[in-house]
């Protein structure tokens, strides 16, 4: 058998029905926070972005960047491992042949940031340290879908030189 506890309601007299005591209690809390914040700025968690930039944590995944070899060319060998690992299917690569070596290069490398979820799986999958998300650049929203599509030159412009061994360990 289900036991039911009946809770008595307080009498809804004129004072309760006017809401004035409860309004007054609420205004006191709001007023206290307003004046404490205004006069002491203690415990304010709101950042005045963009004037005040927050420090990103060391493992923050920012906008992608394509890394370079010491000769300034892209480290990427168009192996498609990043695009295969990408759960959002937002990396498009078209491979080209490097004339000097037995390697490929990305003739096209695009990331569609409207689909990207910044999971970092592309970075994890890459055997060449060719793609990283450690740029520290916060991806700003764009107005059009076309602006969300970032190409190779844009991604290379953020890249630095990596001296890790192609296809293997870091030096
Ligand atoms: S961060 Fe994740 S979703 Fe974005 S491109 Fe890389 S693998 Fe795809
Ligand atoms: S996994 Fe690395 S080397 Fe392979 S296509 Fe992606 S960025 Fe280029």
Commentary on this structure:
There is one protein chain. By secondary structure, this protein is of the alpha+beta class. The protein has two domains: 14-42; 65-157, Alpha-Beta Plaits (2-Layer Sandwich). The protein is built from six helices and five strands, in the order H-H-E-H-E-E-H-E-H-E-H. It has a three-stranded antiparallel β-sheet. It has a two-stranded antiparallel sheet with strand order 1-4. Strand 2 and strand 3 form a beta hairpin. The longest helix has 21 residues, at 20-40. It starts with 13 loop residues before the first helix and ends in a 14-residue tail after the last helix. The model has no long low-confidence stretch (mean pLDDT 90). Bound molecules: iron/sulfur cluster (2 copies). One iron/sulfur cluster is lined by residues 76-82, 93, 125-126, 128, 130-131.
Q: What portion of the residues fall into strands of 2 or more residues? A: 5-15%
Q: How would you write the strand order of the largest sheet? A: 2-3-5
**Number of H/I helices:** 6
- N-C termini distance: 72 Å
How is the main sheet built?
3 strands, antiparallel
CATH topology of the largest domain: Alpha-Beta Plaits
Record field, number of beta strands: 5
What overall form do the CA principal axes indicate?
Answer: elongated
Q: Would you identify the regions where 5 or more consecutive residues have pLDDT less than 50?
A: none
Report the order of strands and helices. HHEHEEHEHEH
Give a quick rundown of the structure:
The protein has helices at 14-18, 20-40, 81-85, 121-125, 145-148, 152-157, and strands spanning 65-66, 91-97, 104-112, 131-132, 149-150. 27% of the residues lie in helices and 13% in strands.
């Amino acid at each position: 058998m289900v036991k039911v506890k009946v809770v008595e309601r307080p009498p809804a007299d004129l004072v309760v029905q006017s809401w004035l005591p409860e309004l007054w209690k609420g205004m006191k809390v709001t007023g206290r926070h307003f004046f404490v914040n205004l006069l002491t700025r203690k415990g304010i968690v709101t950042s005045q972005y963009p004037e005040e930039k927050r420090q990103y944590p060391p493992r923050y995944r920012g906008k992608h960047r394509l890394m370079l070899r010491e000769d300034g060319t892209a480290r990427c060998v168009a192996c498609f491992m990043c695009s295969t690992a990408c759960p959002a299917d937002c990396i498009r690569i078209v491979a080209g042949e490097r004339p000097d070596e037995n390697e490929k290069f990305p003739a096209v490398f695009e990331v569609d940031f409207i689909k990207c979820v910044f999971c970092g799986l592309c970075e994890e999958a890459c055997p060449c340290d060719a793609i990283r998300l450690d740029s520290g650049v916060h991806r700003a929203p764009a107005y059009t879908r076309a602006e969300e599509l970032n190409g190779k030159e844009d991604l290379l412009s953020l890249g630095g030189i990596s001296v890790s061994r192609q296809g293997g360990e870091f030096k």
